[in-house]
TrEMBL record:
One function term, GO molecular function aspect: heme binding
Organism of origin: marine sediment metagenome
Keyword Ubl conjugation recorded: no
Domain Cytochrome c: 39-137
Keywords on record: Electron transport, Heme, Iron, Metal-binding, Transport
Protein name according to UniProt: Cytochrome c domain-containing protein
Pfam family, one: Cytochrom_C
């Protein structure tokens, strides 16, 4: 009898692990961001205001001349709206840039003031922030972004 209990417990643990992996990796869907989930977007908006807006702007507008290094040699914060380049990166890349920081992901001589958020925000909070950002994009941009996620999923 105890053996069946252990087997059942192992199956439950494996199932929860698989569900968590699928949820964080996108589970075969277009990506891992959830811009249509109102609760996730609301959480992301709050987290963005507290952690990102001081550099990227309350209106997602970024800093002036964001394509060229500033006087300090660091790349300014880019805009996250439709006029920026955030949507040119698939969900996984955006997640890694936020969690690990641009220097760790881009490498080379790329320097920016953006920190790695792995010690400040949970994975779910990072997904919420990015979901909020994506929720502000026009439908055409979201569709193009979804195609990046679909292409990455096929690799």
């Amino acid at each position: 009898m105890m053996r069946w209990g252990l087997i059942l417990a192992a199956v439950v643990v494996a199932g929860v692990g698989l569900w968590t992996f699928m949820a964080l990796s996108g589970g075969g869907e277009a990506g891992l961001l959830r811009p249509a989930d109102a609760a996730v977007v609301a959480q992301g908006q709050s987290l963005y205001a507290a952690n990102c807006a001081s550099c990227h702007g309350e209106g997602l507008k970024g800093q002036p001349d964001w394509r060229s290094p500033g006087p300090d040699g660091l790349m300014p914060a880019p805009p996250h709206g439709e006029n920026g380049h955030t949507w040119h990166h698939d969900d996984e890349t955006l997640f890694r840039l936020t969690k690990l920081g641009p220097a760790a992901v881009v490498g080379g001589d790329y320097e920016s003031a953006m920190p790695a958020y792995e010690d400040m925000l949970s994975d779910e909070e990072i997904v919420a922030v990015l979901s909020y950002i994506k929720s502000t994009w026009p439908e055409e941009i979201r569709t193009r972004h979804d195609s990046l996620n679909a292409a990455r999923a096929k690799k």
